[in-house]
Amino acid sequence: MTDEEIRRRQRSRAIAMAVLLVLFVLLVYAITIAKMGLYSS
Amino acid sequence: MTTTTTLERTAPIADWRDFLALTKPRVMTLVVFTGLCGLLVAPVSLPPALAFTAILCIALGAGAAAALNMWYEADLDALMKRTRSRPLPAGRMDRQSALHFGVGLGCFSVLLMGLATNWFAAAILAVSILFYVLVYTIWLKRRTPQNIVIGGAAGAFPPLIGWAAATGDVATLPLLLFALIFLWTPPHFWALSLFVRSDYAAAGVPMLPVVAGARATRIQILLYTLPMAAAAIAPWPLGLAGALYGVAASALSLLFVLLALPVLANKAAEPAGMKPEKRLFAYSVLYLFAIFGALVVDRLLG
């Protein structure tokens, strides 16, 4: 595996992880709102 | 002065697609669908965000179990045509990455399920992951032809988890759905293992056709189909589902039995002559989707 290929894979994994983290933050926000709705009703 | 950076590595760097492949996405679709149906037929409805999270956790838990299965079975997968292009046997990923990914994903799915819905559902999810990895993959698969019978319980948990996520407990209906998948698994996998027998034999996996022969396997397929049909139809006479489901389940199960009969009559020993087995295998996937779909439609219309 060439250095370029290693760099490319590391970069694609980093981007995938960043996307997943953003989605996780949005999910936790949605869960919080839904839980607040459950407890207030 | 110029410096040359050389990335010396002994382990391959896996692409994100390899991690996705580790979760067996195709198997996950059935797990997600049955889990979703368990959640939808429950008498309590969750807010959409929590319902989505519950299904996501079931999917992630199944992915974790699949990753740990591939971590443990890398040597077997390398011996079978069907599995040798997976990330580990193909050399695109090191075993430690697969182990860390599986354990991390499993813990994450259980914790998220507990925090978003309830800890009872999280506990069943944890049991299902551990059952698949410890009982099926590590303990039974290489030791007994009953591997798929007992190990089939792992795949039967999703509707139970979906129901528990919504209600916080279990009841007769999700237990019947558990029994249905539990009894469906042997005919489904034995039909497959009949026409990929040489693969299992080459890897030394004691699947029923390898150990007991094709004839005994064909008899067992029919024998398991009968209680499976009973479990599928049972919610109707027990008053847990309506006539729409009852008629659909009866017709679908009758067709399953009718497709199992040519399998019993088939004498072929080579995959080329195993059209009835291939047909039964393909129908068995459709059957489970249709049965669970009918239950949800029945519940929504009833």
Set out the fold topology.
The complex is a heterodimer of chains A (41) and B (302).
Chain A: H1 3-40
Chain B: H1 16-22, H2 25-40, H3 48-72, H4 74-79, H5 95-116, H6 119-140, H7 147-156, H8 158-167, H9 172-195, H10 197-203, H11 208-211, H12 214-233, H13 243-265, H14 275-301
Helix pairs in contact in B: 2-3, 2-8, 2-14, 3-5, 3-6, 3-8, 5-6, 6-7, 6-8, 7-9, 8-9, 9-12, 9-14, 12-13, 13-14
Shape annotation of chain A: rod-shaped
- Global mean pLDDT of chain A: 91
In sequence order, what are the helices and strands of chain B, one letter per element? Answer: HHHHHHHHHHHHHH
CATH topology label of the largest domain in chain B: Tetracycline Repressor, domain 2
Write down the overall mean pLDDT of chain B: 93
Multimeric state: heterodimer
* Helix/strand class of chain A: mainly alpha
Strand tally of chain B is 0
**Proportion of helical residues of chain A:** over 70%
Class computed from helices, strands and strand pairing of chain B? mainly alpha
Strand content of chain B: under 5%
| Count, helices of chain A | 1
Sheet with most strands of chain A: none
Radius of gyration of chain B, Cα only, in angstroms?
A: 21 Å
Low-confidence stretches of chain B: 1-7
Task: Please estimate the helix content of chain B.
Answer: over 70%
Number of structural units classed as domains of chain B: 2
Question: How many alpha or pi helices of chain B?
Answer: 14
Annotation, overall tally of beta strands of chain A: 0
Name of the CATH superfamily of the largest domain in chain B: UbiA prenyltransferase
